[in-house]
Each structure stands twice: as C-alpha cells, then as structure tokens.
Amino acid sequence: MAQSVISISTRGQGLYEFTREVEGFVKQGNADTGLLTVFVRHTSCSLIIQENADPDVRHDLKEFFHRMVPPSDSSDMRWMRHTAEGPDDMPAHIKAALTAVSIGIPVVGGRLALGTWQGIYLFEHRQSPHRREIVLHLSA
C-alpha cells in the first residue's frame, strides 16, 4: 500500500493532464497488481479519464460543459442562489457533481491499465487559477 498527495496549479477552466505523475507514483509503489484510487479534495473541479491524443477533445468537452451549465449571471441561470463566490462557482459545483471526484484504475503488471489514448485529467471548472490537491492511494 502506498499513498501520496500531488498538487496541480490551474490557470482557469480546462483539462489538465497528470497521467505521467500518476504513472511515476505507481512505478514507485512496486505493485504488480492492485487498484489505484485517485481523489481530488475540492468541490469545484473533478477528475476524468479521457482521450489524450487530440487537443480538440479537451476543447470540445470544456465547451460542452460551458453550454450545459453556463455561469449564474446568464439569463437562464438566474435561479441559482449560491452566487457569493462569483458567477462560475455554483456552475462549477454542478459540473463536479456531473463528473467525478474519485476514480479507480486497475494496476496490471505494475502499470496503469489505461487504454492507448486514455489520460487522467483534472477538470478545472473555475475561471480563476487554483492549486488543487489530489490524493493517490495504491492498494496491492
């Protein structure tokens, strides 16, 4: 069993890949088989496994979520009550609720069992920069 916390500094909304950092952690854990749990310690960002080959995928995902849950100052979103932290805050909580704050990834042969084009991303839902903490836990 191994555990670590990594930090990711964001520059605003978008997807931030951190697959290499996770692969390094798993390699240091020396587990041939096991389960890696990845958990983000925040409520206005989330985690996803997504294609890491074409940057258009990241752009389109960001645009889709923006259209699905626009800022609270948009005319059709004025019903939102939680607005004290800005027009992107409650939409960020909704986006995080629609995705995941924790994911499990099998470890097989000492490596993450990700597909060829899969990467692990922090999905930042806030406009301003943040420092996000992610807990990695490897159970063998």
Q: What is the topology?
A:
Layout: E1 2-9, E2 14-17, H1 19-29, E3 33-40, E4 45-51, H2 55-68, H3 89-98, E5 102-108, E6 111-112, E7 118-124, E8 131-139
Antiparallel strand pairs: 1-8, 2-7, 3-5, 3-8, 4-7, 5-6
List keywords for this structure.
8 strands, 140 residues, 37% strand, five-stranded antiparallel sheet, three-stranded antiparallel sheet, Jelly Rolls, 25% helix, single chain, alpha+beta
Structure notes:
This protein has 140 residues and is of the alpha+beta class. It has a single domain, classed as Sandwich (Jelly Rolls). The chain contains three helices and eight strands. A five-stranded antiparallel β-sheet has the order 1-8-3-5-6, with helices on one face. Strands 2-7-4 form a three-stranded antiparallel β-sheet, with helices on both faces. The radius of gyration is 16 Å and the shape is elongated. It starts with a strand and ends with a strand. The mean pLDDT is 97.
